[in-house]
């Protein structure tokens, strides 16, 4: 198969979808890999490393899209890439269709095959291609939140861990999944007083067992959230409903219950956000203020630490990418139910229920895999 790796052009996105080691693995299986010049530079991989691994380095993104049967990316195509996508071209990347109606319609109209990292799902319902970036984002949420609590950045002026004789900051984490768990661990390690909320009692029991003494668990409901936000210094939105929009757990009118300078970090913003006032921001302009509340809503948080993120992501995606290249998407999805769950759009149809529901579009529960 002919594989293309374009340079990511989303604002301050420095990750790359395939490392030189990944190129070498693809070559071992007999595939041809084209990499756009400087695609790996932000992650610390030069063009010469790709060439030495067996890739052909092309000068422009147009050349990569034109020649490739499968495009491997990190983030969803942006508007300037839409015209480059060909009918029946396989795109393997994070899409988050439920947060972008224009992207959904564009991919339907192009007739592309869109296999989304975020909905590849194991039989135990875990999301293997979302986990590594969720781990990074959860830890970064605290790193960024601690920074924006500083007064020059319009925060409350609180040191997350406090000092002897001065209490630490209070951190509220909404959601006890991968993001929430990593955020709570990071905040606890810095000495903050942490509360983590979730709807699942078994999950709360598990978290209560593994977390240090400065982490409390609480059932997630409107009453408890309303009470907690009144004293929280940093709030992390870590809610995920795979492939679907995140619910709004904190609404606009709830902001007035918070103290001025409180920081909210909505990691769920690429799925619509679990804080109503959050809209996607970029690493270039990461925050905005509403009602004296600092909002950090960067949709590609791991892009700020591209070396770590690229290695973590490609460790997870490469085995699936190899299957797709070896067998073609239809046979690979027929034989691997995890990959089949990743099919969001194909043949001009929506194949993932959460995406269809998000935009009130027809849902096709099954697809005929002609070459299976």
TrEMBL record:
Residues 4-137 form the Alanine dehydrogenase/pyridine nucleotide transhydrogenase N-terminal domain. GO terms for molecular function: alanine dehydrogenase activity; nucleotide binding. GO terms for biological process: L-alanine catabolic process. The active site is at residues 96, 270. InterPro entries: Ala_DH, Ala_DH/PNT_CS2, AlaDH/PNT_N, AlaDH/PNT_NAD(H)-bd, NAD(P)-bd_dom_sf. The gene is ald. Residues 149-297 form the Alanine dehydrogenase/pyridine nucleotide transhydrogenase NAD(H)-binding domain. Substrate binds at residues 15, 75. Keywords: NAD, Nucleotide-binding, Oxidoreductase. It comes from the Bacteria. NAD(+) binds at residues 134, 198, 203, 220, 239-240, 267-270, 298-301. Its EC number is 1.4.1.1. It comes from Flavobacterium pectinovorum. This is Alanine dehydrogenase. Gene3D superfamilies: NAD(P)-binding Rossmann-like Domain. It is an enzyme of class 1 (oxidoreductase). It catalyses: L-alanine + NAD(+) + H2O = pyruvate + NH4(+) + NADH + H(+). One of its GO terms (cellular component) is plasma membrane. Belongs to the AlaDH/PNT family.
């Amino acid at each position: 198969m002919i594989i293309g790796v374009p340079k990511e052009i989303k604002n301050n996105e420095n990750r790359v979808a395939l490392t030189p080691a990944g190129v070498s693995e693809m070559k071992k299986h007999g595939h041809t890999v084209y990499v756009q010049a400087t695609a790996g530079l932000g992650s610390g991989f030069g063009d010469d490393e790709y060439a030495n691994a067996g890739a052909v380095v092309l000068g422009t993104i147009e050349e990569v899209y034109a020649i490739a049967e499968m495009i491997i990316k990190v983030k969803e195509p942006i508007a300037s890439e839409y015209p480059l996508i060909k009918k029946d071209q396989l795109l393997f990347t994070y899409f988050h269709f439920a947060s972008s109606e224009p992207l959904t319609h564009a991919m339907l109209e192009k007739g592309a095959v869109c296999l989304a990292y975020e909905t590849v799902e194991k039989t135990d319902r875990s999301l293997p291609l979302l986990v590594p970036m969720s781990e990074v984002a959860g830890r970064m949420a605290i790193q960024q939140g601690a920074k924006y609590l500083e007064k020059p950045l319009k925060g409350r002026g609180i040191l997350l861990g406090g000092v002897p004789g001065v209490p630490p900051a209070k951190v509220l984490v909404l959601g006890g999944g991968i993001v929430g768990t990593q955020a709570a661990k990071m905040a606890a390690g810095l000495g903050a007083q942490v509360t983590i909320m979730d709807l699942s009692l078994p999950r709360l029991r598990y978290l209560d067992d593994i977390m240090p003494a400065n982490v409390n668990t609480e059932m997630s409901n409107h009453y408890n959230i309303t009470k907690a936000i009144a004293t929280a210094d940093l709030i992390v939105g870590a809610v995920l409903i795979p492939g679907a929009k995140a619910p709004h757990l904190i609404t606009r009118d709830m902001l007035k219950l918070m103290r001025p300078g409180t920081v909210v970090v909505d990691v769920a913003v690429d799925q619509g956000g679990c804080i109503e006032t959050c809209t996607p921001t970029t690493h270039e302009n990461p925050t905005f203020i509403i009602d004296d509340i600092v909002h950090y809503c960067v949709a590609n948080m791991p892009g700020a630490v591209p070396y770590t993120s690229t290695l973590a992501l490609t460790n997870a995606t490469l085995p699936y990418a190899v299957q797709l290249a070896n067998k073609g998407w239809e046979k690979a999805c027929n034989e691997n139910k995890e990959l089949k769950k990743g099919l969001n759009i194909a043949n001009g149809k929506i194949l993932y229920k959460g995406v269809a529901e998000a935009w009130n579009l027809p849902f096709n529960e099954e697809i005929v895999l002609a070459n299976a």
